[in-house]
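Technical annex, item 7. During the second reporting period the consortium partners agreed on a shared format for inverse folding records so that results from different sites could be compared directly. Each record opens with the tokenized structure and is followed by the designed sequence. A conforming record, contributed by the partner at site C, is shown below for reference.
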């Protein structure tokens, strides 16, 4: 099968399209023919070893000293089950599935095996594979952080979302809307139209004004791009308000309940895939170069099988 191999840590050019052996599903695994994946900020972080201080040593320990031990990056997928292990009960050949592999990665490939009990579900019936692949990373991350902030326990919470135009930010808007939040978004002038399309009326343009000078106070301040710290945002919080950031030590853990929520919202028409660009597998270097800019709006899809 064809797969994109990360030959070492470094710039996008370390990624090479190669032919590698087909995986075979074990008893509890399904073999998925991946149609689409996405190039996420997590992928470029691993490829480029783009972390600082202690985090870099930790990452080298976990991921491998001389390059990623798991050579096939990518952790979201949408595709079709083409074979099942002998003990698989929930899925059958032909099922369209989507999900996230987390640190197991392996989705920049034509085929991948995953245990049926892991983070996968039948794809939303109204989503294309590209759309399904695009909603998982930001969606599950946003659900993790907003639930940790207790959004579900606060009636009509006032939520400030900093970095509202990235994969996590665009997802956070949609998840916060699901929890009936009164949302204020912080983004650049280039992102204004997008956050308005997502239904946010109160927008602070960080390239025009200082959002920390905002006089409104919030139940939740969620930094979805990791550019602030708690001290800076503390004055924006109501007395029982909580600050969360993707930029600290807290790591989002993916659960099947998060994926189910995304699927349900998508099928109800209450969630949309925000797709900035779509690249073919052959153009993975260009896709990584674009995501490396840190300026993408929403998600970048890597089409594995022609749509
Ligand atoms: N802790 C965890 O478990 C976890 C999980 C997932 C992701 N993350 C981290 O979360 C961060 C965001 O991930 P992502 O996938 O959403 O990234 P992304 O899609 O690459 O985010 C880029 C977006 O952020 C905007 N942006 C850049 N600088 C900004 C600023 N100073 N203020 C407001 N917006 C800004 C950009 O628009 P403009 O340039 O137009 O402003 C762009 O739309 C990454 O650092 C990632 O590593 C952490």
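Designed sequence (site C submission):
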């Amino acid at each position: 099968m064809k797969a994109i191999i990360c030959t070492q840590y470094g710039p996008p050019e370390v990624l090479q399209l190669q032919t590698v052996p087909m995986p075979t599903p074990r008893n509890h695994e399904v073999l998925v023919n991946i149609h689409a994946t996405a190039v996420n900020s997590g992928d470029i972080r691993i490829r480029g070893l783009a972390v600082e201080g202690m985090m870099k040593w930790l990452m080298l320990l976990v991921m491998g000293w001389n390059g990623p031990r798991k050579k096939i990056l990518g952790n979201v997928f949408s595709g079709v089950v083409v074979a099942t292990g002998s003990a698989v009960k929930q899925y059958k050949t032909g099922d369209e599935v989507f999900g996230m592999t987390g640190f197991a990665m392996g989705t920049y490939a034509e085929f991948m095996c995953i245990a049926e009990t892991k983070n996968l579900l039948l794809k939303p019936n109204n989503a294309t594979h590209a759309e399904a692949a695009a909603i998982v990373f930001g969606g599950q991350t946003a659900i993790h952080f907003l639930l940790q902030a207790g959004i579900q326990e606060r009636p009509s919470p006032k939520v400030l979302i900093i970095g509202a135009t990235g994969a996590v930010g665009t997802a956070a808007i949609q998840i916060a809307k699901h929890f009936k939040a009164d949302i204020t978004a912080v983004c650049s002038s280039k992102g204004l139209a997008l956050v308005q399309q997502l239904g946010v009326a109160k927008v602070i343009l960080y390239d025009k004004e200082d959002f920390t000078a905002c006089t409104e106070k919030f139940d939740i301040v969620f930094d979805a791009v990791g550019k602030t710290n708690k001290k800076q945002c503390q004055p924006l919080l109501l007395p029982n308000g909580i600050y969360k950031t993707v930029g600290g030590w807290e790591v989002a853990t993916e659960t099947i309940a998060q994926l189910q929520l995304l699927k349900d919202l998508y099928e109800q028409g209450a969630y949309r895939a925000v797709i900035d660009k779509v690249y073919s597998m052959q153009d993975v270097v260009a896709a990584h170069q674009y995501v490396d800019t840190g300026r993408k709006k929403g998600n970048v899809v890597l089409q594995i099988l022609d749509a």
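The mean pLDDT is 97. The two ends are 18 Å apart (CA to CA). All partners now use this format for quarterly exchanges.
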